[in-house]
């Protein structure tokens, strides 16, 4: 028989905390019965537990999830904040280096040879008001959608909707018209995709969607009324967001991840095929 290295209650050696062997402790963990010093004690329903037992218990607990299957995260919507920060930094760079946006804006005439423009254009903006309106909408909607869908699905929704916005511009453009060589910038396509997604999520939850439908309608009308607004990007982003978010919010509970991955890849491939077909017949 060997003696416990932590000492025994009533034994010759005083019990010591296993995490801090230099500290004598006569208080024991209710789970493992090991001595636990004040620094390692965690309050329990009866007595105290050591930090190791608490950590094991938390690891064994199932992760809390939202109604759409996303893991519940505490804190701020980091993906939304990242997209906002990227757009603000890009705008600042545009002001300091005016020619910096030239390789990044979208133009149907250049998209086939430089496909990165389909996405990079979403992070550029034509003026401060353009930036402010889009970032406000992104922050308001993203603060709700990101926690509900989860970080990776929200990021995918934003990026694929941005791609859909550029594809919308391409599909409505004619190689024989001026719009084929007109630069397009802005996160509006992505934001409209988020509008569609939050409307669909509210409908899935049985909530009133009147406000979001009115918001989409007002912004859609403004796209036709205000000059130099690419309404084509709004339409493309909205339809893409509706299509992708439908898979996210209506996926069966036991196959959410698989359905979400397949839908993300599938919608992206569909947009690429539509763009390729447009260039093939132009």
UniProtKB/TrEMBL annotation:
GO biological process: proteolysis
Membrane topology: Multi-pass membrane protein
Domain Peptidase S54 rhomboid: residue ranges: 114-249
Protein's UniProt keywords contain Signal: no
Principal location class: membrane
TM region positions: 78-97, 117-142, 154-174, 180-202, 209-227, 233-251, 258-281
GO function term, MF aspect, one: peptidase activity
Keyword Nucleotide-binding found: no
Subcellular location: Membrane
InterPro entries hit by this protein: Peptidase_S54_rhomboid_dom, Rhomboid-like_sf, Rhomboid_protease_S54
UniProt keyword terms in alphabetical order: Hydrolase, Membrane, Protease, Transmembrane, Transmembrane helix
Top-level lineage group: Bacteria
Family: Belongs to the peptidase S54 family.
Protein name according to UniProt: Rhomboid family intramembrane serine protease
Organism: Georgenia wutianyii
């Amino acid at each position: 028989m060997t003696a416990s290295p932590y000492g025994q209650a009533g034994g010759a050696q005083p019990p010591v905390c296993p995490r801090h062997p230099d500290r004598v402790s006569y208080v024991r963990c209710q789970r493992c019965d090991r001595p636990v010093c004040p620094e390692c004690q965690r309050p329990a329903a009866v007595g105290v537990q050591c930090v190791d037992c608490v950590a094991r218990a938390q690891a064994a607990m199932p992760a809390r999830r939202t109604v759409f299957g996303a893991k519940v995260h505490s804190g701020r919507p980091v993906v939304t904040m990242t997209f906002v920060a990227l757009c603000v930094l890009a705008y600042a760079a545009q002001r300091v280096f005016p020619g910096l946006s030239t390789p990044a804006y979208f133009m149907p005439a250049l998209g086939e040879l430089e496909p990165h423009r389909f996405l990079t254009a979403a992070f550029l903006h034509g003026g401060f008001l353009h930036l402010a309106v889009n970032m406000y909408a992104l922050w308001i909607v993203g603060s709700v959608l990101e926690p509900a869908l989860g970080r990776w699905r929200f990021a995918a929704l934003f990026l694929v909707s941005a791609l859909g916005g550029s594809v919308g511009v391409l599909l409505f453009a004619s190689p024989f018209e001026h719009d084929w060589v007109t630069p397009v910038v802005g996160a509006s396509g992505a934001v409209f995709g988020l509008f569609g997604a939050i409307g669909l999520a509210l409908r899935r939850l049985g909530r009133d969607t009147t406000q979001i439908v009115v918001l989409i309608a007002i912004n859609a009308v403004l796209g036709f009324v205000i000059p130099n607004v690419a309404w084509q990007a709004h339409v493309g982003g909205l339809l893409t967001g509706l299509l992708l978010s439908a898979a996210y919010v209506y996926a069966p509970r036991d196959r959410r991840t698989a359905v979400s991955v397949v839908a993300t890849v599938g919608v992206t491939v569909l947009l690429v095929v539509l763009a390729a077909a447009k260039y093939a017949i132009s």
